[in-house]
Amino acid sequence: MMRTRPLKVALLGCGVVGSEVARIMTTHADDLAARIGAPVELAGIAVRRPNRVRAGVPAELLTTDATALVKRGDIDVVVEVIGGVEPARSLITTSFEHGASVVSANKALLAADGAALHAAAVEHGVDLYYEAAVAGAIPLIRPLRESLAGDKVNRVLGIVNGTTNFILDKMDTTGAGYSEALDEATALGYAEADPTADVEGFDAAAKAAILAGIAFHTRVTIDDVHREGITEVTAADIASARRMGCTVKLLAICERSADGRSVTARVHPAMIPLTHPLASVREAYNAVFVEAAAAGQLMFYGPGAGGSPTASAVLGDLVATCRNKLASTTGPGESAYARLTVSPMDDVVTRYHISLDVADKPGVLAQVATVFAEHQVSIDTVRQQGRNPAADGAAVEQGGGRREGGEASLVVVTHRAPDAALGATVEALRKLDTVRGVASIMRVEGE
User: Residue 179 pLDDT > 70, yes or no?
Assistant: First the structure.
């Protein structure tokens, strides 16, 4: 039987996502009530600019006093989609104190202070759900937290930022440079006017922290995540990846160590083979590849941002928290029992693609190879290409050279090695008189 008293929901924020949440709650009220077992009433919407036109949003529900809204005492669930750390954190903790569960899409706050928020939710006997914080509409957090609760997740490898995936995809498929691809992403609405959070990897790093914490039952914050963006990726990097049968993606990678005692979390551009499922993820889509001991390899794919996809994830959490309210229970909270060590990037072991600008003369390759050997970084392949116009860009075989005084590009692909060893190798290479510069360093993943 359906309860007649409605569950009351407060909405904090009414931008692209919030307005879509409000619209769906209004137009699909009967369906939501049937799925929950009680009517759901949108009791108030906190906004900064109440005079702004919002199609389909009841103007009488708007308020600029978010604190008063969450303190009302009759609110069952607060939906927070304003983003940022403050005032979101204060509003969420105030909601808990007044008996409301919270549904959030706030990846930045959760990555920075998730442990404290979980503890506050437990203290007050309420829920904290945040499926929409990672990968938009893709069901990911709930499968990791619930469906794989009895399994051992060893690795999470994903494309979790649509803006950067769009840019890199355009660079790969059209030959565009980074700036040109960014301009197209901005024109189409995939990139913000200030794209720093996306292109410098901050957005993906926050999501990586959340995923690592859930997957490995260990507290991981954004400060634990190694971060590199895509602003230094060049058309030459894309072309070099293609020659290797690879493409370039900005990846969020969360891994359990071989001995099971530690984990790492990192975000950086990487070359992945065209045969890997993530290589085919195009434009602004997201995908996450999960490797678990019993389940094997799983892939989650779909739109990772946008009003409707993100609202879908928010409403899924809203249904779950409302059901819990009716049953006088709470869902799964933070699981951080493992308390594994979060290792630094220096400990990560992977392959590398290094492009060097060198003098085009005999003996250069031997000097470079010696530096790699001294730092115990094993070389897999080498490609040397002259830059002398008379050379017509033809490739030189390993150990070759053309004539003294010219320049060449030397591309070295290594076997697996620790990141610390790579860093020491690169610093030593920079000191060689025959090395004019290190043009690029990119990791090779997904093999």
Answer: yes
Q: What is the mean pLDDT of residues 409-430?
A: 95
Is residue 325 flagged as an active site residue?
no
DSSP calls for 62-111 = EES-HHHHHTSS--SEEEE-S-SSTTHHHHHHHHHHTT-EEEE--HHHHH
Which pair of tokens denotes residue 177? Answer: 């440079």
- Residue 80 CA to residue 68 CA, distance in Å, equals 15
Q: How far apart are CA 355 and CA 348, in angstroms?
A: 20
Least confident among 270-274, 301-305, 347-351:
301-305
CB atoms within 10 A of CB 71: 16
3 state DSSP class of 270: strand
Over the stretch 359-410, which tens digit does the pLDDT of each residue have? 988 889 999 999 999 999 999 999 886 654 333 333 333 333 344 457 888 9
The one-letter code for the residue type at 251 is: L
**Quick one: residue 126, left, alpha or beta (phi over 0 = left, psi -120 to 50 = alpha)?**
beta
Residue 407 near residue 356, CB atoms below 8 Å? no
Residue 13, phi-psi category: left (phi > 0), alpha (psi -120 to 50), beta (remainder): left
- For 229-247, the pLDDT digits (tens) are 999 999 999 999 999 999 9
Contact 395, 240 (CB under 8 A): no
- Give dist(CA 227, CA 315) in Å, integer: 31
How many other β-carbons are positioned within 10 Å of the β-carbon of residue 429? 22
Whether a cis peptide bond, with omega within 30° of 0, leads into 332 is: no
- Among residues 207, 249, 361, 431, which one is catalytic? 207
Query: Cβ distance 255 to 284 under 8 Å?
Result: no
Task: Give the angle subtended at the CA of 328 by the CAs of 322 and 332, to the nearest 5°.
Answer: 70
340 phi/psi in degrees, rounded to 5: -75, 155
Per the DSSP assignment, residues forming a β-bridge with 288 are: 158, 300
Secondary element (H or E) of residue 226: strand 226-227
DSSP annotation of 6:
P
- Give the C-alpha distances (Å, rounded to integers) separating 62 from 27, 91, 262: 18, 17, 47
For residues 96 and 123, the answer to whether their CB atoms sit within 8 Å is: yes
In our burial notation (b when 16+ CB lie closer than 10 A, e otherwise), range 147-185 reads: ebeeeebbebbbbbbbbbbbbbbbbbeeebebeebbeeb
